[in-house]
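hey so i finally got around to running both of the ones u sent me last week. sorry it took forever, my laptop kept dying halfway thru and i had to restart like 3 times lol. anyway pasting them below in the order u listed, first the sequence line then the structure token line for each. didnt double check formatting much so if smth looks off just lmk and ill redo it

first one:
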Amino acid sequence: MTNLFARFAKDESGATAIEYGLIASLIGVAIIVGAGALGGKLNTAFTDLSKTMKGK
């Protein structure tokens, strides 16, 4: 029984999968935040351009 616990404690394959999952989720969050910021700036730029073209 102690041999089973020793093998379980030394097994790192689950830890690697968790690390890859955390990295993927952090990349996803960075993409979402970046796209949100870029979208806001583009919206402002096109709004200003539209106002300029209308002569206001």
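and the second one:
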Amino acid sequence: MREAYHSELGVLADQLAAMCSMVAEAMELATRALLDANLTIAEQVISGDEKIDDARSACEEHAYSLLALQAPVATDLRTVLAAIHAAESLERMGDLALHVAKAARRRHPAPVLPDDVRGYFAELGRVTVQLARKAEVIIRTQDVEAARALEDDDDVVDDLHRHLFTVIMDKDWQHGVPSAVDVTLLGRFYERYADHAVSVAKRVVFVVTGRMPGSVSEDDDL
């Protein structure tokens, strides 16, 4: 019975890892749509968001059934609870990729981004997709050190996000208020996407160690 239960926990982890792959692809395509003003790719991301929502529902249904099947304790209980929280974060990552794609569609055929900031968003897209891909590996391997290192990549996103403000607030900004608003919102979408990826990684640390990174109890051991 326990062996079968642990097998089901493995299936749950596979479902979460698959969601990571889905949201990574969604942001990769959304960024391409944004940079290239490609309506076809934007529509692909928008229509595909329902699959991410369904994946979250499937993960949660599986997790709740595992809670009902047995009364899990210790690591097993942490695994199920972490999966529920991680599925929520991953769905939000899909929603944020959706917002990027919708911005590309809303401005089509005009490009959303002025040339001044295209390079920043190309890098934001690269790093955030990488975060999601790394989160997938972390879920599959339960690598605590890799999970903790993910915050370094998130710092890169935070730095890029902050720098965007200096660009749009500069006296030489010539693209008007609507464009500045677009850049601000889009930068926020990428920043939040990265935060959710880090949250997923932290859930893995919680499963393995029993403590959330940054908690008082963890800091006491340092």
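quick thing i noticed on the 2nd:
The chain is about 85% helix and 0% strand.
anyway thats it, ttyl
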